[in-house]
TrEMBL record:
UniProt similarity note: Belongs to the anaerobic coproporphyrinogen-III oxidase family. HemW subfamily.
Annotated keywords: 4Fe-4S, Chaperone, Cytoplasm, Heme, Iron, Iron-sulfur, Metal-binding, S-adenosyl-L-methionine
Domain Radical SAM core: start-end pairs: 23-270
Protein name (record): Heme chaperone HemW
Cross-referenced Pfam families: Radical_SAM
Compartments, as annotated in UniProt: Cytoplasm
Principal subcellular localization: cytoplasm
Source organism per UniProt: Brevibacterium spongiae
Purpose: Probably acts as a heme chaperone, transferring heme to an unknown acceptor. Binds one molecule of heme per monomer, possibly covalently. Binds 1 [4Fe-4S] cluster. The cluster is coordinated with 3 cysteines and an exchangeable S-adenosyl-L-methionine.
Length: 409
């Protein structure tokens, strides 16, 4: 599990600097709810997650809702004092971990707790991540009744030996059945895929795409496997028990994915995300990419309000102990300067289809844009219209282009 970032120590009450409230009325507000529990810890995962056996009294699933309610109360008062309150919440995202390891009634109860404290937009997007083996029709119906309207399901692969390498425990044969349940309940469905797992063949990847796209899916996220140090998989790669993912193989699989998505009527809107149209994009992730305000609840969750980034204690017991003591669970923060905010704006918006205006870039970047077009990394017609629109090859080299553009900031 990676170390938390370094930063200044925030006040014990979690209060924000006055700068955080400037212009808040013109910014969106989103909520992220981190549920840290997992049935097993996957070998590739470096997220802040814990199995039930890891946690004792005060940090267990039974304590979660009450602890979260304390942080909800804290967030309302903190935002109000900073002049960043009194805004409608546009998106809510339950991530993990596996949020659906909590009883459906608990997730519904958390939504009640949120509604009691925040005004929600009429079209609020409410998503939960889920593993296929945690869902059944009754569970999904309870979520729908509580206001959830989107499920992001961790499919990862349809191939048993790939799932085994990833330490995923669900039965891939269950994916179509669960997808039918989700759609029958009237919820949007997003599937998460991972490509580049050691010993995953091209045919394996095509099989996963075929299964995913055969389920009336609204949205797909497909991420290349990153072998993180400190994980079980990282140790196996270091010892030579598994091969390191090959960059050429990853590029080939990305191109295969993009072609398959397009043939099925899904179009890319961010380098790793495809949807059936603007209305089925993940609005919550768009809020992140647009540097809107969001409050992250739960162990290790990160927040961002008006250029102030702060993060909670990682371990569920440390998080709950601080809340029980009446203190903020935030243990570090960073106040971003103008240059850092501009670099982040470019880094994020350059990955989105027609999000970055060329006339918003720093002086001197014009030559770089002309070079990118000449190299086939940017669409020339879009550039003529003033938009940064990566081609397929440009998406594969998005980080390269960002590095060059941020040199001018």
């Amino acid at each position: 599990m990676p170390a938390q970032p370094t930063g200044e120590v925030p006040p014990l009450d979690g209060s924000l600097p006055a700068s955080a409230g400037i212009g808040a009325a013109d910014r969106g507000l989103s909520l992220y709810v981190h549920v840290p529990y997992c049935r097993v810890r996957c070998g590739y995962c470096d997220f802040n997650t814990y199995t039930a056996e890891d946690l004792g009294p005060g940090a267990s699933r039974d304590d979660y809702r009450a602890n979260l309610a304390r942080e909800l109360d804290l967030s309302v008062s903190t935002l109000a004092e900073a002049g960043a309150g009194n805004r409608e919440v546009s998106t809510i995202f339950f991530g993990g971990g596996t949020p659906t390891l909590l009883a459906a009634q608990v997730l519904a109860g958390v939504m009640d707790d949120i509604r009691a404290r925040f005004d929600l937009a009429a079209d609020v997007e409410v998503t939960t991540e889920a593993n296929p083996d945690t869902l059944d029709p009754a569970y999904i119906a309870t979520l729908a009744g509580a206001g959830f309207n989107r499920i992001s399901m961790g499919m990862q692969s349809a191939v048993p030996h790939v799932l085994k390498t990833l330490d995923r425990t669900h039965d891939p044969e269950k994916i179509p059945e669960v997808a039918r349940w989700v759609k029958a309940a009237g919820l949007e469905l997003s599937l998460d895929l991972i490509y580049g797992t050691p010993e995953e063949s091209i045919d394996d990847w095509r099989r996963s795409l075929d299964v995913a796209l055969g389920n009336e899916v609204d949205h797909i996220s497909a991420y290349s496997l990153i072998v993180e140090p400190g994980t079980k998989m990282g140790s196996m790669v270091r010892r030579g028990q598994l091969p390191m993912p090959d960059e050429d193989d990853l590029a080939d699989k990305y191109e295969i994915a993009d072609a398959a998505m397009a043939a099925a009527g899904l179009h890319w809107y961010e380098v790793s995300n495809w949807s059936t149209g603007p209305e089925t994009r993940c609005a919550h992730n768009m809020a992140y990419w647009r540097n809107a305000d969001w409050w992250g609840f739960g162990p290790g969750a990160h927040s961002h309000v008006g250029g102030v980034r702060f993060w909670n204690a990682k371990h569920p017991k440390a998080w709950s102990d601080r809340l029980l003591a009446g203190d903020s669970p935030a243990i570090g923060r960073e106040v971003l300067d103008g240059s850092t905010r501009e670099i982040e704006r470019i880094m994020l918006s350059a990955r989105i289809d027609k999000e970055l205006r060329l006339d918003s870039l720093a002086a001197g970047s014009e030559q770089a844009i002309r070079t990118f077009v000449k190299q086939g990394l940017l669409d020339g017609d879009a550039a003529d219209d003033g938009w940064f629109q990566p081609t397929l090859q440009g998406r594969l080299l998005a980080d390269h282009m960002v590095r060059i553009l941020t040199e001018y900031v």
